[in-house]
Design goal:
It is a single chain. This protein is an alpha+beta fold. A hairpin with a 3-residue loop joins β7 and β8. A 7-stranded antiparallel β-sheet has the order 3-4-5-6-7-8-9. It has a two-stranded antiparallel sheet with strand order 1-2. The radius of gyration is 18 Å and the shape is globular. It starts with a helix and ends with a helix.
Length: 192
């Protein structure tokens, strides 16, 4: 019996590691790494955004090169990703407000082109974020930033594509900037 239990324990570990889930927070699992255009990005950390009812979403930061600070993570011109997995509904107006406020607070010197890109992103959001949906923001140098909204049953849908590293820095600053949407999410994503 002990041999069988030992075998089952090893089998469970192999199965879990093969599926790539290395981290969990608030009941939400995130893969320990993701592939972006042939580059492996490693999960830096997870942060949890809560309201009075509990966890709203868990955010994960994936980087190609480990960063010691949030500024390093934002400014590195290499592939990176922020992924938010929703546990509770985030109303459309609240989602737009979080991103707009984070953008305005962290990029007050934004030029008109950057402001227009952010406005375009906010207008592209057309529905609330329900439980079990994901928001995936991926940057590749020379390829720009893609924003996708994922659904459990129907897969991910492209919300928008935005060229330029300046847009990536502005959008990543919403969660990692000097005035983040949530200090707890920022600390968690940075592994603190």
């Amino acid at each position: 019996m002990k041999k069988l239990l030992g075998f089952l324990a090893v089998l469970a570990l192999v199965f879990l590691s093969a599926n790539g889930f290395a981290a969990s927070l608030g009941g939400v699992e995130m893969a320990d790494s993701v592939d972006v255009e042939g580059k492996t990005l490693t999960l830096r950390g997870l942060g949890e955004h809560k309201n009075l009812l509990g966890t709203v979403y868990v955010a994960g930061l994936y980087l190609m090169t480990p960063a010691k600070t949030a500024d390093e993570a934002i400014n590195a011109d290499e592939p990176k990703r922020i992924q938010l997995k929703f546990v509770r509904t985030l109303e459309l107006g609240d989602a737009r407000r979080i991103i707009r406020t984070g953008f305005n607070d962290n990029v007050p010197e934004a030029d008109e082109e950057l402001k227009a890109k952010m406005k375009s992103l906010l207008e592209a959001f057309n529905a609330e974020f329900d439980p079990r949906t994901t928001l995936t923001i991926t940057y590749t140098p020379g390829g720009g930033t893609t924003v996708e909204k994922g659904y459990v049953l129907s897969g991910a849908k492209l919300i928008g594509w935005f060229g330029g590293a300046d847009f990536m820095r502005a959008l990543f600053s919403v969660w990692l900037g000097n005035v983040p949407a949530s200090e707890e999410v920022k600390r968690g994503m940075m592994g603190e």
